[in-house]
Amino acid sequence: xxxxxxxxxxxxxxxxxxxxxxxxxxxxxxxxxxxxxxxxxxxxxxxxxxxxxxxxxxxxxxxxxxxxxxxxxxxxxxxxxxxxxxxxxxxxxxxxxxxxxxxxxxxxxxxxxxxxxxxxxxxxxxxxxxxxxxxxxxxxxxxxxxxxxxxxxxxxxxxxxx
Length: 162
Hints:
By secondary structure, the protein is mainly alpha-helical.
């Protein structure tokens, strides 16, 4: 093996004297990304459930379609029982609304405060949603009635939630 020259020894000595941060290669530049645009059209979980109840695929949901759909979905959790508890309701909400902690909560559905939820209570709660979404009051809801339009973000860009 050849003997190192004085200039190589000096370069190695200088490199060793540098702090560790200076010895590492500079980090690659951060990728340039555009922030995700603000979603201006959203579906509430209850609206998503109502839309899924369109039995005849005409893009319109009637109250009868909603009640039949709620009956089927309730039966999938109740398994023959007349009512369900809050844990079963959370299972129902996770499956049919997308998350166990969404609105409507079991507390708003359980109108008689007996810690049990009946199909009638569930249907009554969804009737309130249905009435709110039925903006033209014709007894049915369309996809256009089920979406919520947002014109501005609730938190300005660059601000953090407290």
